[in-house]
Design brief:
With 461 residues, the protein is an alpha+beta fold. It has helices at 3-21, 38-48, 51-57, 80-83, 86-98, 181-192, 196-202, 232-246, 251-263, 335-350, 373-379, 398-406, 423-427, 429-432, 445-456, and strands at residues 58-59, 78-79, 123-128, 135-141, 144-148, 162-166, 203-206, 225-226, 271-278, 281-282, 288-293, 296-301, 306-312, 325-329, 354-355, 369-372, 385-396, 416-422, 434-444.
């Protein structure tokens, strides 16, 4: 089972639970006829929480979970369906709608997995205290990470990265029926407006990992073609595309996002890129594209269906970074570098003989400068558990045998080796790691990495 299938199965499980328990008390809640502002609703929800709900739902404003930006993955906050009364779910439903524009209300709640159960497929996390501020309410579910409460204290638009998407049109060229097909169509028109030379620069081979939306700052290196080099019609289409992406969110939040964009050169300072191939295979024309500049990333992944990520800030050199300081990273760590860091931490913290972390699971790059716990929460955004597995030398898989060969060591066929990895990799381990004799579960991977960095700082391997 791949990660996308696992996420889908989780959403369907909640839907099945809804049908099983039934009854008025557990039916989805409709939004109020008149929806109160986010601040009013956030205070009302916060005041309604009992001790148990507060323990699971609430963290401090500077908790690293505020920085997390994957979608539909557990590990923070409380499930709405199982964790809140009908009255509280009514408040949460209104919060969802209050955190969207009139147009956004026609899209986000209509997502394939959300359209019937509503917020009951989601989790809710409250960072900070809405009665005193600063605070942020985060609703996360299938194809969604929606932040409510306005810009962050650090100057991140929307409070941090927003995530949206929809399952419709899955694996079909042109995304028929998808809620965000209009964004794809503008992107397609933009690609078709380029001449042959421009397309050569804009159309790249491999798409970045979907969660790789780290801000690069003024000295960043951006792939693709500068929007400033497009024709007037092309520049207008790029600006229209940004506005269509913004259109789902409230006016005040969008106004600040526009301020951030303008302070960093406007849409003309962005770079435009499209991709031929990604983790799910060949990409139909213009279904995956990216607009990126010093302090913003708009990443539309429309294949096999829509997963889209927005990250906009006032200062790309001082991006959202919260939680405990862990040390200074001297330079960018790419996916191979992150894999090496994770494997060093896994082996060191478990005293294993070997460590393995799948490079395809790396969620992005680690930026240079002061690193905090929130940066690790975002970098390990699948929220995996550590596992130590035991494999006899005679049963080692090709991947680990190759690891020994590169180290110039001959494995002992009679020895049992401890291999530190993750639950996801261990589940797929027979092909890569070998025949596993035993499996022992450890802490969350992000916690293990943070503990390692506390001791040793960020070292490149």
């Amino acid at each position: 089972m791949n990660r996308r299938t696992a996420l889908k199965a989780g959403a369907l499980g909640i839907l099945a639970g809804t049908g099983f328990y039934g009854g008025y008390e557990l039916l989805p809640v409709m939004p109020s006829r008149v929806v109160d502002p986010v601040d009013v609703l956030a205070r009302r929800l916060y005041a309604s929480l009992d001790e148990g709900q507060r323990a699971e739902t609430c963290v401090g404003y500077d908790h690293p979970l505020r920085q997390y930006h994957n979608r539909g993955v557990g590990g923070g906050g409380r499930y709405v369906f199982f964790g809140f009364s009908r009255e509280q779910r009514s408040i949460l439903t209104d919060l969802l709608y209050s955190g969207l524009s009139a147009e956004g209300r026609q899209r986000v709640p209509e997502e394939y997995f959300t359209r019937w159960p509503g917020v009951q497929t989601m989790r809710v996390l409250i960072c900070g205290d809405p009665t005193t501020g600063p605070y942020q309410v985060i609703l996360t579910g299938p194809h969604l990470n929606l932040r409510l409460g306005g810009k962050s204290r650090e100057g991140a638009a929307f409070g941090g990265p927003q995530v949206y998407g929809d399952q419709r049109g899955n694996e079909r060229a042109g995304l028929p029926g998808n809620l965000y097909r209009d964004q794809f169509l503008i992107g397609q028109r933009l690609l078709r407006s380029l001449d042959t030379g421009q397309k050569k620069h804009a159309l790249l081979e491999e798409a970045p990992v979907q969660t790789g939306i780290e801000l690069q700052g003024r000295h960043g290196s951006f792939r693709g073609i500068p929007v400033s080099e497009l024709t007037p019609d092309g520049k207008a289409l790029a600006a229209e595309l940004v506005e269509r992406i913004f259109s789902a969110y409230p006016d005040a939040d969008v106004a600040f996002a526009r301020e951030c964009l303008a302070a960093n050169g406007g849409a003309g300072a962005l770079f435009l890129s499209y991709y031929r191939h990604g983790e799910d295979g060949d990409i139909p024309e213009a279904q995956v594209f990216r607009l990126e500049g010093p302090a913003s990333v708009f990443y539309f992944r429309g294949y096999p269906h829509v997963h889209a990520f927005i990250n906009v800030a006032m200062d790309g050199d001082e991006p959202l970074s919260v939680g405990e300081p862990l040390g200074n990273n001297p330079s960018w760590l790419d996916r191979a570098g992150v894999k090496a860091l994770f494997e060093t931490a896994l082996r060191s913290e478990t005293n294993a003989d070997l460590a393995y972390y799948n490079e395809s699971s790396v969620a992005g790059r680690l930026r240079p400068g002061l690193i905090r716990a929130g940066d690790i929460y975002s970098l390990e955004s699948w929220q995996e558990m550590v596992e130590v597995v035991e494999v006899r030398g005679s049963n080692l898989g090709a991947l680990l045998l190759d690891r020994f060969r590169r180290q110039g060591v001959a494995p002992n066929s009679e020895k049992t080796y401890a291999v530190a990895t993750t639950t996801y990799s261990a589940g797929d381990g027979k092909r890569k790691l070998g025949r596993i004799d035993t499996r022992r579960t450890g802490p969350m991977l992000r916690d293990l990495i943070i503990n390692h960095l506390r001791k040793f700082g960020v070292r490149h391997h």
